[in-house]
């Protein structure tokens, strides 16, 4: 691969001030479509940083139909309203597209706009252009690069890192998808984060809970559940087809099965066939297919084990059984209690000394309907008493399957857009009167924006597990290697490295340094 050396642009770029919030007459408001944008402006400018983009095509009018307002905070009437209606009430940003900061979505597969590569977004306080066209990666107007955590590769990160650009991380998925982000060196590469952690800048913690009402869906009656038990159903359902994961859940379930009857249907630890072959397609679970839901709701308990253990990482494995009225037997986020509808709604594996004790407790509820039903009281009117849960749901601005609210991808890009416009404003003020204005503070993500602990065996200790065990060979090593990757990339950035391909050299150098220190 050929890469030109572009590091020399940096100083020029840093010197170029952006004009902010220039009020212009609305009647003159012109917008260049995505194509012109590149032809007239950005591509030239990327090569000639010292020149302002040419001021042409400023009087082309908006065509509402060509503007796809999939952006956040958009009104419901998509086809007919003009662009101005999408802005938040605090957005008086009258700049034309060419004056707006650019946010670049780095992941090939994630650009939350359709169709096209570039779009204007009008956010609660300000406006930006968003694009997935990587040709703007060094442009002075490109103020932030947004990465999708699962696809983020330290060895493919955009270099050199431009001092005028922030990095934003969107990662709603499991920590197992990218352990680079679970360590300080990795997460501190980013300025803004949207993760499952409540401490992240734009938290997605309750992404799997559509509404509080979802929890209040009625349960199958206890009489019917007991009939299914009599007909041969186990008290507990396990359905898992993703085996060999960091939480090592199957090792625990196998042990639990020694003491407790569990009907296991997925690829991992399967001991029973589903009543209908069509349910073997896992999409019946992901789409909450009515037949799938009806079948699984017959069980009194569901084993709900996340694929990785991390604070605030909670998925449908937890919320769906609650929706159905089964008691989740949960292992996952150690802070899960904070989010539960009431103080008696789940069985937490970590509260017990051993799988045997968990089994005994489940059996005691299985044979005592009154005790069992106490775990479903959160479904009654007023039964959801957790104020933190209720207020978190009320405060969140994005929706799940809700066309009246923005989705969290568009919500986060607007969050970044407003941050970048505020930052540009603060920098401009500082430049104007450095004596009277404070230096704008950097904003850097912390370990607790994601930070997940090293994977441990699902049952027993590492010393008891043979080295040939596939989990042993995979996850602890993946975790620590990811730490090194974050450190290597940090070092590349510190040294103003421009060549991505040197990543493995940096990794190698680090290993050598480390072994010399030992
Ligand atoms: C749950 O909360 C209620 C009311 O606040 C309290 O009386 C009860 O003891 C709590 N139960 C547990 C198991 O903490
Ligand atoms: C962004 O984060 C980096 C560290 O990764 C830091 O050096 C830089 O100052 C931050 N930028 C802003 C604008 O906060
Ligand atoms: C990297 O570049 C910055 C200017 O952007 C400079 O201050 C710094 O000294 C450089 N670091 C190295 C290791 O060359």
From TrEMBL:
Source taxonomy: Eukaryota, Metazoa, Chordata, Craniata, Vertebrata
Compartment annotation: Endoplasmic reticulum membrane
Catalytic activity: L-threonyl-[protein] + GDP-beta-L-fucose = 3-O-(alpha-L-fucosyl)-L-threonyl-[protein] + GDP + H(+); L-seryl-[protein] + GDP-beta-L-fucose = 3-O-(alpha-L-fucosyl)-L-seryl-[protein] + GDP + H(+)
EC number annotated for this UniProt entry: 2.4.1.-
Bilayer topology annotation: Single-pass type II membrane protein
Top-level EC class: transferase
Described purpose of this protein according to its UniProt entry: Protein O-fucosyltransferase that specifically catalyzes O-fucosylation of serine or threonine residues in EMI domains of target proteins. Attaches fucose through an O-glycosidic linkage. O-fucosylation of EMI domain-containing proteins may be required for facilitating protein folding and secretion.
Signal peptide (residue range): 1-27
Name under which the protein is recorded: GDP-fucose protein O-fucosyltransferase
Domain Fucosyltransferase N-terminal positions: 100-203
GO molecular function per UniProt: alpha-(1->3)-fucosyltransferase activity; peptide-O-fucosyltransferase activity
Family: Belongs to the glycosyltransferase 10 family.
Predominant location: endoplasmic reticulum
Keywords: Disulfide bond, Endoplasmic reticulum, Glycoprotein, Glycosyltransferase, Membrane, Signal, Signal-anchor, Transferase, Transmembrane, Transmembrane helix
């Amino acid at each position: 691969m050929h890469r030109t050396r572009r590091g020399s642009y940096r100083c020029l770029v840093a010197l170029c001030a952006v004009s902010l919030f220039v009020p212009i007459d609305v009647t003159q408001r012109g917008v260049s479509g995505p194509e012109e944008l590149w032809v007239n402006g950005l591509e030239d400018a990327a090569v000639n940083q010292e020149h302002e983009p040419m001021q042409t095509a400023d009087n082309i009018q908006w065509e509402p139909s060509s503007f796809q307002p999939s952006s956040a905070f958009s009104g419901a009437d998509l086809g007919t309203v003009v662009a101005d209606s999408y802005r938040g009430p605090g957005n008086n940003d009258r700049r034309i597209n060419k004056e707006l900061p650019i946010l670049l979505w780095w992941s090939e597969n994630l650009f939350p706009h359709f169709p096209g590569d570039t779009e204007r977004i009008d956010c609660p306080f300000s406006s930006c252009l968003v694009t997935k066209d990587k040709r703007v990666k060094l442009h002075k107007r490109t103020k932030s690069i947004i990465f999708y955590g699962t696809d983020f590769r330290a060895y493919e990160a955009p270099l050199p890192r431009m001092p005028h650009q922030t990095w934003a991380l969107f990662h709603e998925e499991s920590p197992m998808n990218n352990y680079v982000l679970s360590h300080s060196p990795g997460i501190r590469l980013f300025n803004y984060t949207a993760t499952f952690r409540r401490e992240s800048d734009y938290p997605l913690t309750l992404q799997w809970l559509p509404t509080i009402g979802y929890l209040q869906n009625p349960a199958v009656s206890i009489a019917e559940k007991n009939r299914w038990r009599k007909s041969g159903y186990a008290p507990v359902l396990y359905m898992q087809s993703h085996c060999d994961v960091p939480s090592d859940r199957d090792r625990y379930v196998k042990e639990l099965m020694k003491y407790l009857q569990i009907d296991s249907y997925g690829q991992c630890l399967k001991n029973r066939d589903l009543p209908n072959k069509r349910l073997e397609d896992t999409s019946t679970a992901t789409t909450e297919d009515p037949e799938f839901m009806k079948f699984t709701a017959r069980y009194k308990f569901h084993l709900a084990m996340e694929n990785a253990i991390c604070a605030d990482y909670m998925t449908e494995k937890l919320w769906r059984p609650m929706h159905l009225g089964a008691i989740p037997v949960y292992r996952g986020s150690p802070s899960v209690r904070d989010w539960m509808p009431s103080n008696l709604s789940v069985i937490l594996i970590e509260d017990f000394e051993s799988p045997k004790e968990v089994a005994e407790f489940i059996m005691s509820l299985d044979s005592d309907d009154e005790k069992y039903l106490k775990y479903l009281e959160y479904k009654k009117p007023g039964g959801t008493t957790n104020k933190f849960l209720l207020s978190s749901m009320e405060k969140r601005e994005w929706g799940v399957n809700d066309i009246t609210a923005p989705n969290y991808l568009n919500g986060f890009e607007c969050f970044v857009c407003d941050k970048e416009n505020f930052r540009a404003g603060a920098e401009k003020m500082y430049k104007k009167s450095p004596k009277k204005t404070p230096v704008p503070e950097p904003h850097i993500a912390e370990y607790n924006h994601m930070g997940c602990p090293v994977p441990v065996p699902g049952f027993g200790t590492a010393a008891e597990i043979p080295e040939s065990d596939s989990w042993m060979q995979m996850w602890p090593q993946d975790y620590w290697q990811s730490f090194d990757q974050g450190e290597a990339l940090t070092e590349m950035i510190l040294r103003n490295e421009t060549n991505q391909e040197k990543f493995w050299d940096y990794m190698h150098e680090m290993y050598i340094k480390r072994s010399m220190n030992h």
